[in-house]
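Re: the 449-residue chain
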Amino acid sequence: MTSTPRTTRSAAVWTLIGLVLLTLNLRAAITGVPPLLDELQDTFGLTGVEVSVLTTLPELCLGVFSALAPVLARRIGTEAAITVALLVITAGLLLRVVPAQSALFTGTVLAAAGMATGNVLVPAVVKRGFPHRVGSLTGLSMMLLSVGGAAGAGLAVPLDHLGGWRPALAAWAVPALVAALVWGPLALRARTHRRRRPGAGASPAASPSDRPDTPTGAPTEAATRAAAAQGSLLRSPLAWSVMVFMGMTSLMFYTLTAWLPGIMHDHGFSPATAGMMNSVIIVIGIPLGFVVPVVAAHMRDQRPLVLGVVALMAVGLGGLLLAPRAGWVWVTVFGVATGSAFPIALTLLNLRSPDAATTARLSGMAQSGGYLLAACGPLTFGVLHSVTGGWEASIWLLFLLVVPELVCGLLAARPGFVRPGPARPDGPEESRGEPARVSARSTEADRAR
């Protein structure tokens, strides 16, 4: 009688450790490359176009491979999929040190594919393992994503000075491998549990970690089968709203961080100061990444948060157009806006899903489409700047894109669950009101603990 709680508690602690290590490894392989671009260009003889491809590849891969993550999780289980993702990241990072252009680009694709899988499955792990801690653990994940990204960028040059570009690129293979060694036992445990349960072989992804809990704490096989059989999320307007909102928030962040230093430099700021502004935006986002999901998860309706964040983005873009010399003011505004918007979008993946299986599917759809949408931002912004010779047209484009961000954000923030598959003739496919009861139960549990 006492062994079950003890086993459950140890598994939860092990999963939490794995979650921390996973999220720390989902950005460093990307952010560690830009500081080394000049050296990599000289070493490999890269052209300007090839450098642009190298920096764009990770974002494109995040969009492409995110769609495959839920499929992989259903086939082999969430824990096993995460283990494979971390091993792929490790292999990609090690491959990049081979002195060949093909190895550099192939390793980048592999590392980004692993990160895309991990990105998608983080919300599902939180929803499944810690259903009453969605806000706090989503916040922790967001904070660790930022910390990992900042560490990757900040340590790249010191590591390069110590041993050259090879150890600077390969260093992050070590924590990725450590994370894989933590998730490996969790994958074996889930596999063993599936084999012991009657009928578990009917659904490869029907691990105890992928199914919603019953009142007695035992997951139900029928729940996972039903989730897989309901159809495509592409027919859910709510899922599309979540996807576009996530894509627009990512587009704003990546476009601003790519081009803001150039804008500020052209308006009189030194290159060092203009570069520091990007760092300030990221640093402001670290505490917000933790706080905002907690606040959002405790609210029945997240629309006021969305409205406030999008309004801040509009203020910042308007200020950049009208008074660009007040650069530090707008950088602070951008830091709050971008540092809050993506955590809200990530939290909505859980709040709009009735179970972990749907969370993984919604996460795959939102991150796949969202990152592909976001990848268009920096490129289009740069093309407009090249064509017009100034920054105004490009900034106006971002200002206009605030409108779809607001509309889709408000639709995604309404209380409700996505319902995969075709809509029923007698009513809409989304279920309204149900999340309020779930959120209330989660809030009460949070307060009680």
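Residues 323 and 330 are 9 Å apart (CA to CA).
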